[in-house]
Every structure is written in structure tokens, then in C-alpha cells.
Amino acid sequence: MEALKKSPIVKAVGLNRILLVCVLLVMYGAFAVISPTFLSYSRILSALNYAYFLGFLSLGVTFVIATGGIDFSIGPVMFCCALVSGYCLTSYGVPMPAAMVISIAVGFVFGCFNGYLVAYWDIPPFIVSMASMNIAKGVASVFTKTQSVSWPRSDAPGGWYRKLTSVGSIPVGLIIFLVVAVICAIILNKTKIGRYIMCLGSNKEAVRLSGVNVRRWQMSAYVICGTLVGVAALFYVAAYTTVQPGYGDQYNNEAIAGCVMGGTSMAGGLASISGTVIGVFIIAILQEGILALGLNKNYQLIITGIIVIVAVYFDVLGRRRKN
Q: How far is CA 163 from the centre of its chain?
């Protein structure tokens, strides 16, 4: 094992990411053997569609967790973004580009709201995210009068937005997602804001005593998260079209599972965008594999919960060794 860790490839890529890729390939192979239909293009496209919106949620919450915080409102906020912007589109005749901007703007506002309460009012992130989750559900229900919202189909006026996921056989969504992931990795690892976000998770008090405005940088993590949640809403409706008020909770755990599985520490100070990307695809393959086997989606909830527990346990063990 020590010789493996000293390998140049392992040092460059990271042992955790190599293991994650192996898990992803083994899962894909296992599902393909058990259910031959899993290899069909429709199954692959379905898994990718699931990975896109979940991926943007995971990228956003990675920044929050890196500060040592948490955000359990991302799923309901995503639905709120989709419902509010979709209702403006279908009921008020707002043009499609404006509706897409509204979706991102709603996510941005929730990010500012969460970040301000956590950073400037010193309210625990868990409490803020629980309150924000309920507010998002309430706002969406009141705004849409508790009605579901259906975005235009691909053959309807304005249906071009569905090309966010694919154009013919070209997975456009995959390209966009990976480009955004690279940008997030650069922000987190190569910029001032990213360095401060990581330092906040490692030792917030030390950063404050060094003269850094920790409140500003802590809030920025939530703003980035909220903005990406607004983007996730667009990819959700591009894949599934119809959105109903009161939903979205299940995606919180899946997005966080993707982060933690990818090497982001729940204690903060350690995060990996590339690991998050791989973790998201593992969750997406798991979800599609369970459906291909004809099992109830509840099995995915059970497995995702176990994944979170195991990933956090290994994170705790790793920190104990370092200490």
C-alpha cells in the first residue's frame, strides 16, 4: 500500500479519486451484467440527465461544506427556482431567456439570505438551512398557488432550453457541467476567495486574527452555492419538464453524499471538486441501476444514507490519524 501511495500517478491524481473511478467502473459493469438494458443509450442519457442537476447542487454545496458549514435547503430551493421562473414563463409570458435569469436570480437571493444569516448573524448553518428549506417551499407554493408548473416541451415555442441537456446524440449538458466544474476547481484552488474559504474550514479563528474579513468570505460560499442551485433548476426542468411544489428534500442528501464521497470533509478545510464530480456520477449510476433492476427508488435512499455514513466515518478516521 505504501508503494502504491508513492506512485507518481497516485500522487498526481490522488488515491481517493482513483478508488472512486474504480468504484464507478465496477458499478457500471455490475449493472450492465445484471441488466443488459443498462447499456442502452436511453439508460445512459437518463443517468446523465440525473447527474447534471445533481452535479450543480453538489458543486455548490462543496463550497459551503469547505467552510465547515452545511446547507440542507438546496433541493427545495432548486424547486423554488424552477417553480417561480416557470410560473413567470407560463403565466406572465416572460421570455425564456428572462425566465432562465430569474431562476438563477432566485437561487442567488437564497444564497445571499443563507450566507448573511450564517456569517453576520452567527446563526448555526443547520438552523439557517432548515428555515430556508421551509421558506423555499412556502414561497414556491404561494407564488404558484400550489399548482405544478410545466415548462415548454421541446417542440413548443421556447422549447430550445431543453438543448441544455443534449442536442441529438451530443451530451451538451455533460460539456457544460464539466466546464463549470473546472471553473469551480480553479476558484476553489487557485483564487483568493477559494483559499479563504478553505482556510475558514481549517481554522476560522486563526483567519480572523490575521485580519481577514471572515464574514465576507463565509457569505461568498453560500452565494456561490445559491447561484449554482439556480443553474441546477434549469437543468432539472430541461430533463423532466414538470415541477411540483413541496418537493426537493431527497436531493439534499444525494448532493451532499456526492461531495463527501468525493473527499470533501464535513469538518471543513478539505474539498475536492474533481472528487465531487466522480461522486455525483456514482450516485447517478446507482439511481439508474436501481431503476434498471426494477427496484423501488426507496432502495436508493437507503443506499445513499449508508454511503453518507461510511464516507463521513472514513473522514473521521483520516482526521484522527493526522492528529
A: 20
73-132 confidence digits (pLDDT tens): 999 999 999 999 999 999 998 999 999 999 999 999 999 999 999 999 999 999 999 999
Query: What is the distance between the alpha carbons of residues 18 and 12, in angstroms, rounded to a whole number?
Result: 10
Residue in 139, 146, 144, 165 with CA at minimum distance from that of residue 90: 144
Torsion of CA 221, 244, 172, 271, to 10 degrees: 30
Q: Is the pTM of the predicted complex or chain greater than 0.85?
A: yes
pLDDT digits (tens, 9 = 90+) for 41-70: 788 888 889 999 999 999 999 999 999 999
Task: Find the domain containing 221 and state its range.
Answer: 52-277
Number of domain units in the chain = 1
Contact 197, 67 (CB under 8 A): yes
**Phi (first) and psi of residue 150, to 5 degrees:** -110, 120
Tell me if 321 is assigned to some domain: no
